[in-house]
Each structure stands twice: as C-alpha cells, then as structure tokens.
What does this fold into?
Amino acid sequence: MYKKLNEEWQINHLIKSGKKIEYGIDTPIGFAGIRYSYVQTKQENDLLQVIPSRYRDKCTLSLMEVNHKIPAHTDSGIEAIINFYIRTDRMRTQFYHPRDDVETVQIANQTDGAIFHDKYLKKSSRFMAHPGEAYLLNVSHPHALIPSQKGPIRRTAICMQLLDTSWDEAVDMLKETGYIDD
It folds into this structure.
C-alpha cells in the first residue's frame, strides 16, 4: 500500500501556477479538503530522478495542499503516486481493507475514485510522514488523512502522479533506480 523512499528531498523553492483540481467542500470559512495546483520547482529534475528516464513522460507534478481531515477514499484515475513531503503537520496516512459489502459514495468531480464509510473498513497499515521524506502510495486502496493533534492543518507535498502505471510497475521502477529497497 506504501513504500518509503530511501532518500530525502528538501524542496525550498516552488511556484504555484493555478488550480488543477480540488476535492472537498466549501464552508462558511473557506474550502476544506485537498487542492492540487500546477507547480514548478527548481528541484524538478532531482525529483524525476526517482523514475527511470524512459518513463518520465508518464509523470506529472502537482502541489498537494490539505487543510482538513480527509475521509477514507480512493483516488480518481490513478493507482501509483509519489508524495515528496514539504510540510506534514503530523497527519497520519491510514490505509484500510474494505469489507465485501462495502458501500461508497462519490463527490461531484470524482471519476472512478470513491469515499468510504468507516463501518465498511478494517484498518490496515499507516504512516506519519515527516518533511523531506517521500513515499510511493497505492492510492487505489482506501486511505484517509488523519490529524494527530488539534489545530489548523496545512499539509503540503509535491505529488508525482505515475500515469498509466500499476503499483507493481511503480515498485519496479523505483527498485531499478535504487530509491526503494526490497
């Protein structure tokens, strides 16, 4: 469901250049959820080194910003991503196993992703990322983002989507470049 990369990255300069997509709700005090924006960073070439050069045309980079607890969900249109964490606010990424009789819902802009009710899920593995760390995630499995402390949330990461790439293919890519062991 996830693998930690064996190197750290300090992303100290980025330019956000417009909203790509967001998942969440508008509240009286503003948007609550996950927002993805177009991004440029001086470290882009360093980040792309985790993927063999022949696959880099399958990668897109976005800035992921989370400002609220995110319920268990699967992502739309993607199986494998790499998050390079900039700020984590001590949130846990919790993965789940869905029950056989699982019921899901979708928000308006989800395609094949879904949101899961907790009663249909069994907790699986989890991790708490720290700034500078990077994780390969299988986002076709239900996962949630859960704060570990009270207060405002501002979690940010550069998200590398591996388009048209299965989890197993992504693992093989990162083994080839030496960024994951195993």
